[in-house]
């Protein structure tokens, strides 16, 4: 049996979470106002959670061929969103394939450029839009001991490193790919919700002092890292995708979430 005692899975590295508001024009010459989707991480938390401004949500998932997320992961993701948000007019999740950019391994700046080219869904009327990219490569800062599964980098934008997830899921004793995909989607979207202390004010002090933007409570979906064979991985193997703990739920409910 291969042991990965020192192997850490980072759901998101906050050194990579950046505000890209000024990096893209709000109008690409096609008359589409992109400004509401080019804001910093966490600034649209309440809009994503409640129905005061937006009564529906349109999630655009683009994936490179052969890196389409599993149907099971999408089901896990949808159930998570429906359990935490008020969107009376529904949540649509639309998937489509896009060509490989050929840029792997990726910097966040390169993912931003891909978003400029491939994103088609933006806020319109009472519908808020989110863009998710399933990449055919790794993050450029990955090492043998640490690797990033996903990064939320704008108020309605995130990247999931599909190849990283598939490579890890193929290792001995690793959780199933669908479970890792579902956990990563839920974790990264929770950063869009402003967790932890990333735009959504804490109702109690539960931010990890050693990992800003993450929860200190054991077993929570928003823990920063997983040590293989223990911690949250045990939760994944024993009972599926980890859930938000009550402190995180209280934070979301304080701004209109379920």
From TrEMBL:
GO terms for molecular function: metallopeptidase activity. Transmembrane segments: none annotated. Gene3D superfamilies: Collagenase (Catalytic Domain). Keywords: Signal. Residues 1-24 form the signal peptide. InterPro entries: MetalloPept_cat_dom_sf. This is Membrane metalloprotease. It comes from Christiangramia aestuarii.
């Amino acid at each position: 049996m291969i042991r990965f005692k020192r192997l850490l899975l980072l759901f998101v590295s906050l050194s990579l979470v950046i505000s890209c508001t000024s990096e893209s024009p709000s109008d690409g010459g096609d008359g589409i106002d992109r400004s509401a989707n080019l804001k910093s991480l966490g600034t649209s938390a309440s809009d994503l959670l409640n129905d005061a401004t937006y009564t529906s949500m349109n999630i655009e998932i683009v994936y490179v061929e052969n890196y389409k997320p599993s149907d099971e992961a999408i089901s896990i993701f949808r159930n998570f969103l429906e359990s935490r948000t008020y969107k009376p007019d529904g949540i649509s999740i639309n998937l489509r394939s896009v060509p490989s950019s050929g840029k792997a391994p990726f910097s966040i700046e390169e993912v931003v450029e891909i978003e400029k080219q491939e994103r088609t869904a933006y806020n319109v009327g009472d519908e808020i839009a989110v863009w998710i990219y399933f990449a055919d490569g790794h993050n450029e800062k990955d090492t043998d001991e640490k690797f990033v599964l996903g990064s939320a980098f704008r108020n309605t934008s995130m990247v999931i490193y599909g190849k990283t997830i598939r490579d890890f899921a193929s290792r001995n004793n690793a959780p199933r790919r669908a479970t890792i995909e579902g956990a990563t989607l839920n974790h990264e979207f929770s950063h869009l919700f402003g967790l932890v202390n990333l735009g959504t004010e804490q109702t109690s002090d539960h931010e990890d002092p050693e990992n800003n933007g993450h929860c200190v409570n054991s077993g929570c979906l928003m823990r920063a890292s997983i040590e293989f064979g223990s911690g949250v991985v045990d939760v994944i193997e024993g009972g599926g995708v980890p859930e938000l703990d009550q402190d995180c739920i209280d934070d979301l409910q304080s701004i209109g979430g379920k």
